[in-house]
Specification:
single chain; 221 residues; alpha/beta; Rossmann fold; six-stranded mixed sheet; four-stranded antiparallel sheet; 6 helices; 27% helix; globular
């Protein structure tokens, strides 16, 4: 990076950011306010290159291993849902298995993905639950995107997020998660606590539940 001017955090919009790590490809900054670690916008892939990278993924809806992977989010969230809940799966990809799993459990689920299911009309409906499996780390503007999804949740609704979490700077240096060029935002437990506190201050309580190493649930109200 050539400029010493602080770069605004894409989650909290503060300019209290500083260098966190640098590898042979990218820089990583940390925010002193919300603790998000992120890649500067100028080092993100283009939309075309990002889509090309996603097309290399081979997540098949009939793959039992993929189902077991999604179970880490599905099981704790489904256990908290009322019967016949209405949900939204964001970032579903070309194989929307998570939505199928919730439908098998008796719920109705809409899907949205900017590349594979780009019908934006689903982003104006109220939902009992919203899921983001391996999605938030790809968000260039997580503050705006997550705020929008939070407004779609009904009172008593659930936001379910699966993403690997930052532990510390030493572990970050050798973390496989940062080698994916489409991963640009990295959340820690402290970041999710900040997010829940921020939403609570907006008027409706947000309660954070940590479910294992890579799943968090946030209840609205």
């Amino acid at each position: 990076m050539n400029s010493d001017a602080p770069i605004q955090c894409p989650l909290c919009a503060k300019d209290r950011t500083q260098p966190y790590h640098r590898d042979n490809v990218r820089d990583y900054l940390s925010c002193d306010n919300c603790t998000l670690v992120f890649v500067p916008p100028g080092q993100h892939l283009s939309a075309a290159d990002e889509k090309a990278y996603y097309d290399l993924h081979d997540n098949q809806i009939d793959d039992p291993g993929y189902r077991r992977f999604l179970d880490r989010l599905f099981q704790p969230l489904s256990a908290r849902l009322a019967p016949k809940a209405c949900g939204l799966d964001v970032g579903c990809g070309p194989g929307p298995l998570l939505s199928i799993m919730f439908e098998e459990a008796g719920h109705s689920v809409a899907v949205y993905d900017p590349y594979y299911a780009p019908d934006g009309t689903v982003l104006s409906e109220p939902y009992d639950f919203i899921t983001l499996s391996e999605v938030v780390e790809h968000m260039a503007k997580p503050g705006a995107d997550l705020d929008r999804l939070w407004t779609l949740l009904k009172s008593g609704g659930w936001l379910g997020i699966m993403t690997k979490r930052v532990r510390d700077a030493e572990a970050f240096r050798t973390w496989h998660y940062i080698t994916d060029p489409t991963h640009v935002c990295f959340f820690s437990e402290a970041t999710f606590l900040w997010l829940a506190d921020r939403w609570s201050l907006m008027g409706v309580p947000a309660t954070l539940f940590i479910e294992g190493d890579d799943v968090v649930l946030i209840k609205k109200g």
